[in-house]
Amino acid sequence: MLELLRKIVQEVSAASNVEAALKLIVRRIQRGMNTEVCSIFLLDESTERFVLRATQGLNRKAVGRASLATSEGIVGLVAKRAEPINLEDAESHPAFCYLKDSGEERFHSFLGVPIIHHREVLGVLVVQQQECRRFDESEEAFLVTISAQLAAVIVHAEASGAMVESPESGHKTIDRRFEGVPGAPGVAIGQVVVVSPQANLDAVPNKRITDVDTEVAFFENALERVRSDIRRVSAKLSRRLRHDEQALFDVYLKMLEDNALAGEVVGRIRDGNWAQGALSSVISENAQQFAMMEDPYLRERASDVRDLGRRVLAYLQEGDGPRTIELPDNAILVADELSPAILGEVPQDKLAGLISVKGSGNSHAAILARSMGIPTIMGIVDLPYRHLHERQVILDGFAGRLYVDPSEELVSAYQDIVKEQQEVAAGLAQLKELPAVTTDGERVPLWVNTGLLADVERSLERGAEGIGLYRTEIPFMVRDFFPSEQEQLEIYRRQLEAFAPRPVTMRTLDIGGDKALPYFPIEEENPFLGWRGIRVTLDHPEIFLVQIRAMLRANEGLGNLRIMLPMVTSVQEVDEAKRMLERAITELREEGHQIDPPEVGVMIEVPAAVYQVKRFAKRVDFISVGSNDLAQYILAVDRNNPRVANLYMAYHPAVLRALEHIAREAQQESVQLSICGEMAADPGGAMLLMAMGYDVLSMNATNLPRVKSIIRSISMQQARELLETVLQMDDAEKIQQLISQTLKQLGLSRLSQPQLPD
Ligand code: PEP
Ligand code: MG
Question: Of 108, 156, 364, 389, which residue is the catalytic one?
Fold first, then answer.
């Protein structure tokens, strides 16, 4: 059964359209379970009816025609109860409703299971037989298992099907909507550009071309380069390999011949697809065929086919990186996985919006997008992005929604929102020189988080009073190897100089989790619970020492450096890091440098650190809370996983309690306390944090003026009253509502979220 399940999911994933996918499913299940009928009913949202979309065993002519109201028949009952119904004789059930012209009158036994995706019933999967019998438990369990797996596949196939361009109709304007996770607020209206990761066959978009001959020649050139690579490797290894191993190289060369894969690819290029798209589809179909073969030797060949495909693709993609691609005006960049490296490279002048199929609201790519002020959607997992290249879209970064081929009315509604946001921004620009002070005279210093070069200028423009977090790993990510001490010194000096005499808090390298260096891969089952932050740098003193030496040297003659340690869980880590810092200071002084010891601080990002604030306080000059990680660890919700994005709640009572506990302990030790997680950039979060007593709020430059405006509009007294009420509450959603309501009463709702179209 497991084998059958694997096969079905594989085949269905490779099906060319949703109808083919559904047909395959019913045929395979009917055969695999040895039943007489297998059918799929899917909900048509426009008519609110379950429509027969595929059947093996009932009258095929009824497909697409026969349907049941949502409250009708046993199919309706399965959907309503959201659980299987297994009947010996369906006709005798009170809910039975005969499906006209289907020919189902001959069949008595009935087993229906719901098809559920993200808690929503999409349809019902049914098997039937003439004989009056109850399907046994294992059959029921099998159907439930397969239905649970197929739900996501069906959603994806439906979405892709709707996206594929039909030559006669062109693109219709139907406001097709896809839901993701809000990444960075704002609205963008523009044209999609898909960037595919290098040599990733599954992420290549389809693109129409007109100059077929040039494209074929381009493909043949790439192919020839792969052939010559194979011949070269084969010759080099000829003495070391056995004859049968050597023969494999000949197999690869044969696979690349015109009457094999190459011929198929050229055929598809001639049909009008570009070489990368043609290659990707041919490789994927051939690999699928091999993967489904019974013979284990032949099954293994699937990975050879994919490997060859990747090699050809790599040559086709030379010079195809985000920096080199031509962007149209108002480009909306779509990537399978948006990374800080892509964001560091992409030219920003024409960039209007960003979409990442993977990742979530607090992934580092989203955090950077917010600091760049570019509307972004993350975790839009059902988006068939390979069909989206050059399509017109509206990106709603407030709600995390994407509309493909939008209607004029919708474009106009969103244009109004864009205008309103521009007015809000213009109003906020006037606050630059004014202090962040509450109406009852309490001063709240607002600092910024930086990482990209452009952040510095943006931060100064918006009146930042210091840098509360400089993510040093970002410049490390856009390179091919670790930057040298001199290179780092130059990068750090720019930050320190631009802000001097204001403080600049440099965090030591915080890699691991969702931040990978291409030249220092960390492969782990649980990266967020693994080798991250200070754990890596303490294990690699040569990397740590170079970094702190570069920081200390960059600070010569300026004196505004503060060094901050990430992901600390125990005081021993702090002691060890401080010893290394002292060593670096001594060495540099011996080398003749004028080194001032900088202030040192720790980040509170893990629950273990929450309960050691006082111990840390005795060892350091400042403490800064990383609420992004702290929330993920307290709630056990991966900040990078869109499937649990709705469970990642900064206003969760447990998170608020932890933040308040940290504030109380830090006050008792009189240590400076700041926060540099995204919560400080949220208008409601900022109100609560200042009421808790956080001395400094550090946030992305984009949101700084909004937060300043909020602080200048309320009194500390009001903020404390709000905090007191919130701390009594036990429901994050209700807390969120109360905060929105408070902002509304203060006349500040325009600063959080505009009224969006439904
Ligand atoms: C945090 O975890 O809140 C933080 C500021 O660090 P980062 O987002 O870079 O992990
Ligand atoms: Mg962190």
Answer: 364
